[in-house]
Design brief:
alpha+beta, 9 helices
């Protein structure tokens, strides 16, 4: 009999399928050895070995016999290309993002929320030699970046607390907020203010201001940010940058309502 459990939404979850997908999520962040996968995911070595064998057979995972590591296979990329949920907003936002990057001289990023992770879906790079380096598809913990906090403002308090119930907030710099109640209060303040900021909370030497983007129904569907090296951020940088950022967010939202 297949082991199943029921989620809060009432859907049944097949344990083996769930474990296979968790393995794919881990491999999306880099290659791993069999033992590392089992240890990281707290799964039996024999179960992981069997699941990897199936994933390799189906082409979702590739095995490198030289390094003895597993990584995502071509089939995973092919299936991923079938997801189109973010393409409409990327098409609308990217030209405006490129203009904003030229106007501010800084990197502009668009992201969506996946659980408690901030996922980059489009980037307009700064025209300056010294700039933030990131990549489309990169995932970062939402608590550590301005974009993530802006995305979380779209959740009501009950959902916000549910997602972070019992969570341990990882520290990346001395400025990272790791106290859960302090972090939740910060998200609530950001919700009231209409924007979120990141003062060297993920990377020392990088600051960010971000705003949520809402659809025609008022739901937060993504967030937009401007990020800059700290040496280029004067005392009024956040407020000065928030003005052109808000203008672009308004333009994107207006186009989404058409």
């Amino acid at each position: 009999m297949t082991a199943e459990q029921q989620t809060s939404s009432g859907h049944n979850v097949v344990k083996s399928a769930d474990r296979a997908l968790v393995i794919l999520e881990l491999l999306s962040r880099g290659r791993h050895r069999l033992s590392d996968i089992a240890e990281t995911l707290h799964l039996p070595l024999s179960s992981v070995h069997g699941l990897l064998g199936t994933l390799v057979h189906r082409g979702f995972v590739e095995f490198d016999p030289t390094t003895r590591t597993y990584g995502l296979g071509l089939k995973a990329w092919t299936v991923g290309q079938g997801y189109t949920g973010h393409r409409d907003i990327v098409g609308l936002a990217l030209p405006l993002m490129e203009d904003l990057a030229q106007q501010t001289g800084e990197t502009v990023q668009l992201s969506r929320l996946d659980g408690t992770e901030n996922v980059y879906i489009a980037i307009a790079e700064s025209p300056q030699p010294m700039k933030l380096v990131s990549a489309v598809g990169m995932r970062l913990p939402a608590h550590s970046v301005g974009l993530g906090k802006a995305l979380l403002t779209g959740l009501d308090d009950d959902e916000l607390e549910r997602r972070y119930a019992g969570a341990r907030l990882e520290r990346f710099t001395p400025n990272t907020v790791t106290d859960l109640e302090e972090f939740l209060d910060e998200v609530r303040r950001s919700r009231r203010a209409g924007y979120a900021a990141d003062d060297e909370e993920y990377i020392i030497g990088c600051r960010c201001v971000a705003m949520p983007i809402r659809d025609h129904a008022g739901q937060v569907i993504s967030a937009l940010s401007v990020s800059a090296p700290t040496p280029r951020c004067g005392p009024g940088w956040t407020e000065e940058t928030r003005i052109p950022l808000a203008e672009v967010v308004d333009q994107i939202e207006s186009q989404l309502r058409r």
